[in-house]
Design goal:
Elements: E1 2-7, H1 15-26, E2 30-34, H2 43-49, E3 54-58, H3 65-74, E4 79-80, H4 83-90, H5 92-101, E5 110-112, E6 128-132, E7 142-144, E8 169-173, E9 180-187, E10 190-197, E11 209-211, H6 215-228, E12 232-240, E13 243-251, H7 261-274, E14 283-284, H8 292-296
Parallel strand pairs: 1-2, 1-3, 3-4, 10-14
Antiparallel strand pairs: 5-8, 6-7, 6-8, 9-10, 9-12, 10-11, 12-13
Length: about 300
Protein backbone atom coordinates (compact mmCIF):
# COMPACT_ATOMS: atom_id res chain seq x y z
CA UNK A 1 0.00 0.00 0.00
CA UNK A 2 0.99 3.64 -0.39
CA UNK A 3 0.33 5.88 2.61
CA UNK A 4 0.87 9.58 3.33
CA UNK A 5 1.61 10.66 6.90
CA UNK A 6 1.16 14.28 7.97
CA UNK A 7 3.52 14.84 10.91
CA UNK A 8 3.93 18.23 12.57
CA UNK A 9 7.03 19.67 14.19
CA UNK A 10 6.07 18.70 17.75
CA UNK A 11 6.22 15.02 16.78
CA UNK A 12 9.38 15.23 14.66
CA UNK A 13 11.24 12.88 17.01
CA UNK A 14 8.26 11.12 18.57
CA UNK A 15 8.11 7.33 18.46
CA UNK A 16 4.43 7.58 17.67
CA UNK A 17 4.09 7.89 14.70
CA UNK A 18 7.72 7.67 13.51
CA UNK A 19 8.13 4.07 14.65
CA UNK A 20 4.87 3.23 12.89
CA UNK A 21 6.22 4.77 9.70
CA UNK A 22 9.40 2.68 10.03
CA UNK A 23 7.38 -0.47 10.70
CA UNK A 24 5.14 0.02 7.68
CA UNK A 25 8.19 0.66 5.52
CA UNK A 26 9.86 -2.50 6.86
CA UNK A 27 6.74 -4.47 5.93
CA UNK A 28 7.19 -3.32 2.34
CA UNK A 29 4.68 -0.49 2.13
CA UNK A 30 5.49 2.90 0.61
CA UNK A 31 5.14 5.71 3.15
CA UNK A 32 5.48 9.36 2.20
CA UNK A 33 5.82 11.92 5.01
CA UNK A 34 4.74 15.54 4.77
CA UNK A 35 5.84 18.04 7.44
CA UNK A 36 3.19 20.80 7.44
CA UNK A 37 5.05 23.05 9.87
CA UNK A 38 8.48 23.18 8.24
CA UNK A 39 8.33 22.54 4.51
CA UNK A 40 6.77 23.75 1.27
CA UNK A 41 3.92 21.45 0.34
CA UNK A 42 2.80 20.86 -3.26
CA UNK A 43 -0.71 20.63 -1.86
CA UNK A 44 -2.85 20.81 -4.98
CA UNK A 45 -0.74 18.26 -6.83
CA UNK A 46 -0.37 15.91 -3.86
CA UNK A 47 -4.08 15.83 -3.12
CA UNK A 48 -5.33 15.89 -6.69
CA UNK A 49 -3.06 13.03 -7.71
CA UNK A 50 -4.94 10.68 -5.39
CA UNK A 51 -2.03 8.26 -5.47
CA UNK A 52 -2.16 7.31 -1.78
CA UNK A 53 -4.42 4.62 -0.34
CA UNK A 54 -4.85 6.68 2.84
CA UNK A 55 -3.67 9.80 4.62
CA UNK A 56 -2.77 9.63 8.31
CA UNK A 57 -2.55 12.62 10.63
CA UNK A 58 -0.38 13.17 13.72
CA UNK A 59 -0.65 16.84 14.48
CA UNK A 60 -1.14 19.46 17.15
CA UNK A 61 -4.53 21.01 17.79
CA UNK A 62 -5.04 24.04 15.59
CA UNK A 63 -2.04 23.20 13.43
CA UNK A 64 -2.05 23.18 9.61
CA UNK A 65 -2.08 19.39 9.33
CA UNK A 66 -5.81 19.07 9.89
CA UNK A 67 -6.56 21.45 7.03
CA UNK A 68 -4.41 19.33 4.73
CA UNK A 69 -6.19 16.19 5.85
CA UNK A 70 -9.54 17.86 5.21
CA UNK A 71 -8.35 18.78 1.72
CA UNK A 72 -7.56 15.12 1.03
CA UNK A 73 -10.96 14.04 2.35
CA UNK A 74 -12.72 16.72 0.28
CA UNK A 75 -11.63 15.02 -2.94
CA UNK A 76 -12.66 11.59 -1.70
CA UNK A 77 -9.39 10.23 -0.30
CA UNK A 78 -9.37 7.94 2.75
CA UNK A 79 -8.16 9.46 6.01
CA UNK A 80 -7.17 7.78 9.29
CA UNK A 81 -8.95 8.71 11.52
CA UNK A 82 -11.98 9.92 9.58
CA UNK A 83 -11.40 13.66 9.25
CA UNK A 84 -14.88 14.54 10.54
CA UNK A 85 -14.18 12.58 13.70
CA UNK A 86 -10.89 14.40 14.27
CA UNK A 87 -12.51 17.82 14.03
CA UNK A 88 -15.14 16.72 16.54
CA UNK A 89 -12.61 15.93 19.28
CA UNK A 90 -9.93 18.54 18.58
CA UNK A 91 -12.25 21.28 19.87
CA UNK A 92 -12.79 20.28 23.50
CA UNK A 93 -15.79 22.57 23.86
CA UNK A 94 -17.46 20.93 20.87
CA UNK A 95 -16.46 17.45 22.04
CA UNK A 96 -18.01 18.07 25.47
CA UNK A 97 -21.31 19.15 23.91
CA UNK A 98 -21.42 16.16 21.55
CA UNK A 99 -20.48 13.67 24.26
CA UNK A 100 -22.84 15.01 26.91
CA UNK A 101 -25.66 15.27 24.37
CA UNK A 102 -25.12 11.59 23.57
CA UNK A 103 -25.51 10.58 27.22
CA UNK A 104 -21.83 10.01 27.94
CA UNK A 105 -20.59 10.80 31.49
CA UNK A 106 -18.93 14.17 30.84
CA UNK A 107 -18.85 17.02 33.38
CA UNK A 108 -20.92 20.15 32.86
CA UNK A 109 -18.76 22.40 30.68
CA UNK A 110 -18.48 26.18 30.51
CA UNK A 111 -16.61 28.22 27.90
CA UNK A 112 -15.13 31.74 27.94
CA UNK A 113 -12.40 33.74 26.26
CA UNK A 114 -10.99 34.90 29.61
CA UNK A 115 -10.74 32.96 32.84
CA UNK A 116 -12.26 35.83 34.82
CA UNK A 117 -15.61 35.12 33.16
CA UNK A 118 -15.83 31.83 35.03
CA UNK A 119 -16.43 33.83 38.22
CA UNK A 120 -20.10 33.80 37.17
CA UNK A 121 -20.22 30.04 37.83
CA UNK A 122 -21.84 29.26 41.20
CA UNK A 123 -19.18 28.96 43.88
CA UNK A 124 -20.64 25.59 44.86
CA UNK A 125 -19.23 24.16 41.60
CA UNK A 126 -15.65 25.05 42.52
CA UNK A 127 -12.94 23.88 42.35
CA UNK A 128 -12.84 24.08 38.56
CA UNK A 129 -10.52 22.52 36.02
CA UNK A 130 -9.66 25.19 33.43
CA UNK A 131 -7.92 24.37 30.14
CA UNK A 132 -7.66 25.58 26.53
CA UNK A 133 -10.38 24.28 24.23
CA UNK A 134 -7.66 23.50 21.66
CA UNK A 135 -5.12 22.04 24.07
CA UNK A 136 -3.68 18.54 24.35
CA UNK A 137 -1.25 16.41 26.35
CA UNK A 138 -2.28 18.05 29.62
CA UNK A 139 -0.77 21.42 28.64
CA UNK A 140 -2.03 24.51 30.47
CA UNK A 141 -4.52 22.53 32.55
CA UNK A 142 -5.11 24.30 35.86
CA UNK A 143 -7.04 23.48 39.01
CA UNK A 144 -8.74 26.64 40.30
CA UNK A 145 -9.83 26.21 43.90
CA UNK A 146 -11.86 29.42 44.35
CA UNK A 147 -13.25 32.24 42.16
CA UNK A 148 -10.65 34.75 43.39
CA UNK A 149 -7.88 32.62 41.80
CA UNK A 150 -9.39 32.70 38.33
CA UNK A 151 -7.23 35.51 36.87
CA UNK A 152 -4.18 33.29 37.36
CA UNK A 153 -5.71 30.80 34.92
CA UNK A 154 -5.03 33.27 32.09
CA UNK A 155 -6.69 33.85 28.74
CA UNK A 156 -7.47 31.63 25.81
CA UNK A 157 -4.11 31.69 24.08
CA UNK A 158 -2.91 28.76 21.96
CA UNK A 159 -1.71 25.86 24.07
CA UNK A 160 0.74 24.63 21.42
CA UNK A 161 2.88 25.94 18.57
CA UNK A 162 0.65 26.46 15.58
CA UNK A 163 -2.50 26.71 17.69
CA UNK A 164 -5.15 29.19 16.70
CA UNK A 165 -5.14 32.44 18.63
CA UNK A 166 -8.36 33.81 20.05
CA UNK A 167 -9.78 30.44 21.00
CA UNK A 168 -11.74 29.46 24.08
CA UNK A 169 -11.02 28.27 27.55
CA UNK A 170 -13.28 25.64 29.02
CA UNK A 171 -14.03 24.98 32.67
CA UNK A 172 -15.49 21.88 34.30
CA UNK A 173 -16.17 21.12 37.97
CA UNK A 174 -13.32 19.12 39.45
CA UNK A 175 -14.10 15.41 39.88
CA UNK A 176 -12.65 14.15 43.20
CA UNK A 177 -10.27 11.28 42.47
CA UNK A 178 -7.20 9.45 43.73
CA UNK A 179 -4.75 11.47 41.62
CA UNK A 180 -4.50 8.68 39.06
CA UNK A 181 -5.94 9.03 35.56
CA UNK A 182 -7.20 6.04 33.63
CA UNK A 183 -6.21 6.27 29.98
CA UNK A 184 -8.05 3.86 27.68
CA UNK A 185 -6.68 3.37 24.18
CA UNK A 186 -8.63 1.99 21.23
CA UNK A 187 -6.67 0.41 18.40
CA UNK A 188 -9.28 -0.22 15.70
CA UNK A 189 -11.62 -2.09 18.02
CA UNK A 190 -9.23 -3.41 20.69
CA UNK A 191 -9.22 -1.62 24.03
CA UNK A 192 -6.35 -1.25 26.49
CA UNK A 193 -6.54 0.46 29.89
CA UNK A 194 -3.50 2.10 31.48
CA UNK A 195 -2.85 4.16 34.60
CA UNK A 196 -0.89 7.42 34.67
CA UNK A 197 -0.37 10.38 36.96
CA UNK A 198 -2.93 13.15 36.70
CA UNK A 199 -1.58 16.51 35.41
CA UNK A 200 -3.50 18.09 38.30
CA UNK A 201 -1.56 16.02 40.86
CA UNK A 202 2.07 16.08 39.64
CA UNK A 203 3.39 15.05 43.06
CA UNK A 204 1.28 11.93 43.27
CA UNK A 205 3.46 8.82 42.73
CA UNK A 206 1.99 6.67 39.95
CA UNK A 207 3.71 3.95 37.97
CA UNK A 208 2.41 3.90 34.41
CA UNK A 209 1.16 0.41 33.68
CA UNK A 210 -1.52 -1.55 31.91
CA UNK A 211 -4.48 -2.37 34.16
CA UNK A 212 -7.62 -4.49 33.80
CA UNK A 213 -10.46 -2.88 31.89
CA UNK A 214 -13.85 -2.95 33.59
CA UNK A 215 -17.00 -3.66 31.60
CA UNK A 216 -18.41 -0.20 32.39
CA UNK A 217 -15.34 1.70 31.21
CA UNK A 218 -15.13 -0.54 28.11
CA UNK A 219 -18.75 0.27 27.28
CA UNK A 220 -18.18 4.01 27.68
CA UNK A 221 -15.04 3.91 25.53
CA UNK A 222 -16.85 1.93 22.82
CA UNK A 223 -19.71 4.44 22.83
CA UNK A 224 -17.23 7.28 22.34
CA UNK A 225 -15.84 5.56 19.26
CA UNK A 226 -19.34 5.11 17.88
CA UNK A 227 -20.50 8.66 18.69
CA UNK A 228 -17.46 10.40 17.20
CA UNK A 229 -16.60 7.87 14.48
CA UNK A 230 -13.05 7.29 15.74
CA UNK A 231 -10.90 4.21 15.13
CA UNK A 232 -7.56 5.12 16.73
CA UNK A 233 -8.16 7.14 19.89
CA UNK A 234 -7.60 7.57 23.60
CA UNK A 235 -10.02 8.47 26.40
CA UNK A 236 -9.06 10.01 29.76
CA UNK A 237 -11.32 8.67 32.51
CA UNK A 238 -11.51 9.62 36.17
CA UNK A 239 -12.98 7.16 38.65
CA UNK A 240 -15.02 9.61 40.69
CA UNK A 241 -17.35 9.03 43.64
CA UNK A 242 -20.31 8.58 41.27
CA UNK A 243 -18.52 6.34 38.77
CA UNK A 244 -16.37 6.85 35.66
CA UNK A 245 -16.24 10.36 34.18
CA UNK A 246 -14.75 11.19 30.77
CA UNK A 247 -12.55 14.29 30.87
CA UNK A 248 -10.74 14.15 27.51
CA UNK A 249 -10.78 12.42 24.11
CA UNK A 250 -7.77 12.32 21.75
CA UNK A 251 -7.34 11.10 18.20
CA UNK A 252 -4.14 9.15 17.42
CA UNK A 253 -2.62 9.37 20.94
CA UNK A 254 0.70 7.97 22.19
CA UNK A 255 -0.59 4.44 22.97
CA UNK A 256 1.85 4.22 25.87
CA UNK A 257 1.84 0.90 27.73
CA UNK A 258 -0.13 -0.82 24.96
CA UNK A 259 1.59 -4.18 24.30
CA UNK A 260 3.42 -4.19 20.94
CA UNK A 261 1.89 -0.78 20.25
CA UNK A 262 3.89 -0.05 17.09
CA UNK A 263 2.96 -3.31 15.38
CA UNK A 264 -0.67 -3.10 16.48
CA UNK A 265 -1.14 0.51 15.36
CA UNK A 266 0.67 -0.17 12.09
CA UNK A 267 -1.56 -3.13 11.37
CA UNK A 268 -4.65 -1.09 12.27
CA UNK A 269 -3.64 1.70 9.87
CA UNK A 270 -3.42 -0.84 7.05
CA UNK A 271 -6.79 -2.38 7.85
CA UNK A 272 -8.46 1.02 8.07
CA UNK A 273 -6.85 2.15 4.83
CA UNK A 274 -8.25 -0.91 3.09
CA UNK A 275 -11.80 -0.46 4.25
CA UNK A 276 -11.87 3.31 3.88
CA UNK A 277 -11.56 4.00 7.63
CA UNK A 278 -15.11 2.85 8.36
CA UNK A 279 -15.65 3.05 12.16
CA UNK A 280 -14.93 -0.19 14.00
CA UNK A 281 -17.07 -1.55 16.82
CA UNK A 282 -14.71 -1.45 19.82
CA UNK A 283 -14.51 -4.14 22.47
CA UNK A 284 -12.10 -5.36 25.14
CA UNK A 285 -8.77 -6.57 23.79
CA UNK A 286 -8.35 -10.29 23.52
CA UNK A 287 -6.21 -11.68 26.36
CA UNK A 288 -3.91 -13.61 24.05
CA UNK A 289 -1.40 -11.57 22.08
CA UNK A 290 -1.16 -12.40 18.36
CA UNK A 291 2.41 -13.02 17.17
CA UNK A 292 4.05 -10.00 15.61
CA UNK A 293 4.72 -11.96 12.46
CA UNK A 294 0.97 -12.38 12.01
CA UNK A 295 0.38 -8.69 12.65
CA UNK A 296 3.10 -7.69 10.23
CA UNK A 297 1.74 -9.91 7.50
CA UNK A 298 -1.19 -7.57 6.78
CA UNK A 299 -0.26 -5.95 3.47
Amino acid sequence: MRLCFLVEEQYRYDGMPLDVIRQLTAWGHQVDVLWPGRSLLPLSEAVRAGSHDAWVLKTVSGGPGLTLLEAAAAVGLTTVNDVRAIRGVRDKALAAVIARGSGLPVPVTYAAARAEEFAQIPEAEFPLVVKPADGSSGRAVRLVETPDRLPAAGTAEPAEPGGAAGGLLIAQPYVPNSGTDLKVYCVAGELYATERRSPLHPGHPVRERQVPLTAEVARITAEIGAVFGLDLYGVDVLLGPDGPVVVDINDFPSFRQVPDAVARVSSAVLRLARKGAAPAVPGPAAPAEPPLAAIGGDR
